[in-house]
Each structure stands twice: as structure tokens, then as C-alpha cells.
């Protein structure tokens, strides 16, 4: 199971500047853990001390926010795109 | 010369330089502009502010623009209207409307944030400006981009009100309709923020942009005779405005311009998009995003970036939050128009109807000063009311037909 993870600018220092990386995993949690295995230090930035994804980050599987699904336990399938997008202001 | 020290993460407190950054690169928390208040306190007085022109730049020391503003010289200082007729119907004595439906030049409070954001974009050296918008922001960025000789791209949901699309296209700039709701447009803009080197005002200029909203609060205080209002009812979309009015009042207190900063804040949303009011009412720790389903498009943000802090501000200030249905918001628009002669958009209808609800439920006291924040103009959202109004009476140019109308009106009045 490999998904494409879209990396926001502030985290590209961990991916050698890559906008997208391919990561193995069956759930969002596994994808986060494998991101850390490949790009050491990135998990601390994605998740707070409680292990939960930080509240100002939105994570999407394709077009759906994981908070409408099963949060970090949401399953992913081969070929999905996981986007990590910082929250931004209204307009 | 400005008084900005830099940017600070609201979440973890890390400091950043004065650059086009919008989130903390460590924890992704929002960045806030911080000022040298001691230096400002040494020079800024009520008299100096009062001696300046009737626009947002009368508070220039408290805005993050260092030099002469590049655009928006006539923005702001909109009327604070004592709403006696509406107050009578709602059973309150001291009710005011802060009326940004007549803000210059595009009839919403967004002219404040855009004047600041585009002046800052010019200082940073950007030649292209952009935004994700539910309508009002796009109108304002487009107008100010033309004024400031920027190129511009406006991204909006393809389904927003016709007048908001026309009110952007008219400036002859690039308008992109996206097949998505606002949250989808926002996400797209945040993903392209760094790609083209544009100033996307609500993305990479967010800390500077959001500071413009403070002027709405400074004006309320000054127009009340240098007093903090006791209660303010604010429409909430992303949740930023309520925080900036609070920051404005706290700054004025810190600078010795007012004697106290005891204001309670009340948030208003449409029930069809109420992630913040829901969290306040149910006392939730986290904001749960929702999929918007309301005619109040300008505040239909299902995933509010400042939702968490606005919820906290409401609770800490002793205020409350509530939401109203689409039918109630239309009644709110009509009520304000029929009592005060002010035609506001759907968001204003939400705020008026929520104020009524908060008064009736006892959350808002009847004998204290209440400000209703009207932030946009009803001519932009005519779709909301077009089927809810009477039709004009059509006659021939004949005085007898006028007699008939007057007679009919008399009879109707007599029956009431």
C-alpha cells in the first residue's frame, strides 16, 4: 500500500525540498509513523505531545478531511493522495 | 517608520521576523503581529487620533504598515448608528449598529483588511495579489489591486451570489470560479501560496491582513466617546474578526486611551454552518469542521482557522454564541431594513437575528450597551430576499390609481 503525501512548504526541509513523497501504510497513523521512519523529525511537527495531529493542520485523503472520516485511524488505499494543509484565514 | 517588532506564534510563542509568513513553521499555529507598545504609548493620544482624517489610518501606529499606505486611503470610519427603532422592538435601551455595509470602496469590512494587506504587499515588493474568497474579500482585493497597480487573481466558489461575481469581474482582473465550497478554494490557495510568488492576502499575508480588522474595534471605542462597549455581537466565519476587536480594545486599554476593557463577546453563525457556536454551546474542546449548508455564503466556512481562539475569547469574556436558521436570518435582514433603514447582507441578517435570540434568552442584558456588527451590504445578496418581499404595485400614470392605493393603505392601517 503506497500513498502520495503532499508536503506543505514548512515541512519540505525534511523531504529534501520534495513537494510529494510516496509512503507505505494502511491507515493515516501508519503513514505518519512511516513518514517519521523515512524523514526523521517530521512527526514532532505533525503531531503534538499527545500524538494527535496538531489542531492547526488539516489532513485530507483525496478530497475528504480525515475529521469527517475516522481521524488518524482512517484507512488509506493504494494510490490515495494524502494532503497536509495548514489552516488559513477566512475571506 | 512603523512600530512592529515582528511576528509571534499564538500557539507556542516562537518569534519570527517581519516577513510574509503565515504559520509557525514548528507547530503551524497562527502568527500575530507584535508591536512596541511602550514606544506607541509615548506618542499616541486621543487628541492626535482625533486630529487625523476619517479613515483607518488615523490608528496607523497600531497597523503593520511601515511607510505611507500604498492603497485604501479612504477606507473605514463608517457610522456607529444608535438603533432606537430596532432597540424598541428588541426591548433594549442602548443598541448600536456599526455599519460597514457602507465602507469605501466595496461595501464590506473587508476593505479594512485589504487596505492593510495590499499596502504591506507593496512594502514586501509583490507585484501580484490574490485571495480565496466567499465574495466580499474578492471584491475588495480586486478594487484595491486596480488602485495599487497590482496584477491579481481572485479564487471563489463557482456558486456564490451573482452580484459578488459581477462585483469582482467589473475591475477587469482574473476571476477564477472553483467547483468547490469555500473550504476547498481555501485549500487550493494554501497549496499554491508559495508556487507563484504571489501575495495571497488571507494566506501568506494573513498576520498583516488580519490586523486591519482591529480598526473596526478602535472606531467603535472612539465613536462611543472613548469607551469600551459592554457587549459586542460579531458574525463568525473563520473567527478572526471577534479576536481582532478584542485585541483592539485591549490595546487601547494598554495605551491608556480607555479606562477599562471589560467587553463581552458574542458570536453569531448560521445554523447550517455553525462549528464555532456549536463548540461554545456544547462546551467542546475542539472545533469539529462541518460541511456548510446555508444561504449565508459570506460566513459559510466549515473549517474555521481561528475557531479555537474565538471560542476561547467568547468564553473568557463572559459572552456566548448562538446560531440562526436561513429563515431567521432573512427575517433579521428585513427587521434591520424596516426599523433602521440599513440593508445588510446575509451575514448581517445572521447577526441581527442572533442578537434578538440572545436578548430573548437573557444572555444579553437589556439595560447595557450592545453593538451589532454589520459587516456587509444587502445589495450583494439580493437572492436571499427576492422571493420574500412584496411586489411593487404597477399602475398607469393616472392620479385616480394613486388615490386607490392611498385609500387601500388607509383601510389596511385602520384594520391594524
What fraction of the residues of chain B are assigned to beta strands by DSSP? 5-15%
Overall structural class of chain B, as computed from helix and strand content, comes to alpha/beta
CATH class of chain B: Alpha Beta
Any idea what the radius of gyration of chain B is? 22 Å
Give the strand order of the largest sheet of chain A, numbering strands 1, 2, ... along the chain.
Answer: 2-1-5-3-4
Helix content of chain B: 25-40%
Number of domains of chain A: 1
Q: How many E-type strands of chain A?
A: 5
**What summary fits the major beta sheet of chain A?**
5 strands, mixed
Which spans of chain A of ≥5 residues are poorly predicted at pLDDT below 50? none
The helical percent of chain A reads: 10-25%
Separation of the first and last Cα atoms of chain B: 64 Å
Overall morphology of chain B: globular
- Given the C-alpha coordinates, what overall shape of chain A results? globular
Q: Which regions of chain B are unreliable across 5 or more consecutive residues at pLDDT < 50?
A: none
CATH homologous superfamily label of chain A = Beta-grasp domain
Q: How many discrete domains of chain B?
A: 1
Predict the CATH topology of chain B. Rossmann fold
Outline of the structure:
The complex is a heterodimer of chains A (91) and B (416). Chain A is an alpha+beta fold.
Q: What would you note in describing this structure?
A:
The complex is a heterodimer of chains A (about 90) and B (about 425). Helix content of chain A is about 20%, strand content about 25%. Chain A has about 90 residues and is of the alpha+beta class. The longest helix of chain A is centred in the middle third of the chain and has 11 residues, at about 30-40. Chain B has about 425 residues and is of the alpha/beta class. In chain B, about 40% of the residues lie in helices and about 15% in strands. In chain B, the strands form three sheets. A six-stranded mixed sheet of chain B has the order 4-5-13-10-11-12, with helices on both faces. In chain B, strands 8-7-6-9 form a four-stranded parallel sheet, sandwiched between helices. In chain B, helix 5 packs parallel to helix 6 (about 160-170), helix 9 packs across helix 10 and helix 13 packs across helix 14 (about 345-360). The interface between A and B is large, with 24 and 48 residues.
Amino acid at each position: 500500500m503506497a500513498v502520495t503525501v503532499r508536503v506543505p512548504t514548512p515541512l519540505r526541509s525534511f523531504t529534501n525540498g520534495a513537494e510529494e513523497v510516496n509512503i507505505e501504510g494502511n491507515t493515516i497513523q501508519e503513514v505518519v509513523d512511516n513518514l517519521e521512519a523515512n524523514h526523521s523529525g517530521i512527526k514532532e511537527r505533525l503531531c503534538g505531545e499527545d500524538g494527535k495531529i496538531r489542531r492547526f493542520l488539516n489532513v485530507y485523503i483525496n478530497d475528504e478531511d480525515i475529521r469527517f472520516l475516522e481521524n488518524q485511524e482512517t484507512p488509506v488505499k493504494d494510490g490515495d493522495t494524502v494532503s497536509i494543509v495548514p489552516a488559513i484565514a477566512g475571506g | 517608520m512603523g512600530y512592529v517588532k515582528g511576528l509571534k506564534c499564538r500557539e507556542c510563542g516562537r518569534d519570527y521576523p517581519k516577513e510574509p509568513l503565515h504559520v509557525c513553521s514548528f507547530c503551524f499555529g497562527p502568527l500575530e503581529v507584535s508591536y512596541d507598545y511602550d514606544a506607541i504609548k509615548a506618542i499616541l493620544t486621543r487628541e492626535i487620533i482625533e486630529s487625523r482624517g476619517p479613515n483607518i489610518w488615523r490608528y496607523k501606529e497600531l497597523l503593520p504598515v511601515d511607510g505611507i499606505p500604498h492603497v485604501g486611503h479612504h477606507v473605514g470610519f463608517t457610522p456607529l448608528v444608535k438603533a432606537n427603532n430596532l432597540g424598541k422592538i428588541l426591548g433594549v435601551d442602548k443598541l448600536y449598529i456599526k455599519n460597514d455595509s457602507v465602507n469605501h470602496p466595496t461595501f464590506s469590512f473587508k476593505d479594512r483588511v485589504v487596505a492593510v494587506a495590499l499596502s504591506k504587499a507593496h512594502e514586501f515588493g509583490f507585484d501580484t495579489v490574490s485571495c480565496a474568497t466567499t465574495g466580499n474579500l474578492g471584491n475588495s482585493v480586486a478594487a484595491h489591486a486596480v488602485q495599487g497597480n497590482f496584477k491579481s487573481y481572485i479564487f471563489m466558489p463557482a456558486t456564490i451570489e451573482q452580484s459578488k461575481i459581477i462585483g469582482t469581474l467589473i475591475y477587469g482582473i482574473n476571476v477564477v470560479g472553483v467547483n468547490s465550497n469555500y473550504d476547498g478554494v481555501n485549500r487550493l490557495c494554501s497549496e499554491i501560496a508559495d508556487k507563484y510568488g504571489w501575495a495571497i492576502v488571507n494566506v501568506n499575508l494573513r498576520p498583516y491582513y488580519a490586523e486591519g480588522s482591529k480598526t473596526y474595534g478602535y472606531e467603535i471605542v472612539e465613536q462611543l466617546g472613548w469607551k469600551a462597549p459592554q457587549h459586542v455581537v460579531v458574525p463568525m466565519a473563520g473567527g478572526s474578526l471577534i479576536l481582532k476587536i478584542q485585541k483592539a480594545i485591549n490595546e487601547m486599554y494598554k495605551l491608556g486611551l480607555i479606562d477599562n476593557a471589560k467587553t463581552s463577546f458574542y458570536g453569531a453563525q448560521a445554523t447550517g454552518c455553525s462549528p464555532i457556536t456549536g463548540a461554545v454551546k456544547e462546551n467542546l474542546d475542539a472545533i469539529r469542521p462541518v460541511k456548510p449548508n446555508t444561504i449565508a455564503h459570506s460566513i459559510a466556512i466549515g473549517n474555521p482557522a481561528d475557531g479555537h481562539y474565538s471560542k476561547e475569547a467568547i468564553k473568557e469574556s463572559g459572552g456566548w454564541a448562538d446560531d440562526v436558521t436561513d429563515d431567521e436570518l432573512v427575517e433579521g435582514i428585513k427587521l434591520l431594513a424596516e426599523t433602521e433603514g440599513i440593508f445588510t447582507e446575509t451575514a448581517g441578517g445572521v447577526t441581527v437575528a442572533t442578537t434578538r435570540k440572545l436578548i430573548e434568552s437573557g444572555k444579553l442584558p437589556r439595560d447595557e450597551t450592545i453593538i451589532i456588527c454589520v459587516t456587509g451590504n444587502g445589495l450583494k445578496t439580493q437572492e436571499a430576499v427576492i422571493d420574500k418581499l412584496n411586489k411593487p404595485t404597477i399602475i398607469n400614470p393616472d392620479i385616480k390609481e394613486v388615490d386607490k392605493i392611498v385609500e387601500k393603505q388607509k383601510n389596511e392601517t385602520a384594520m391594524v
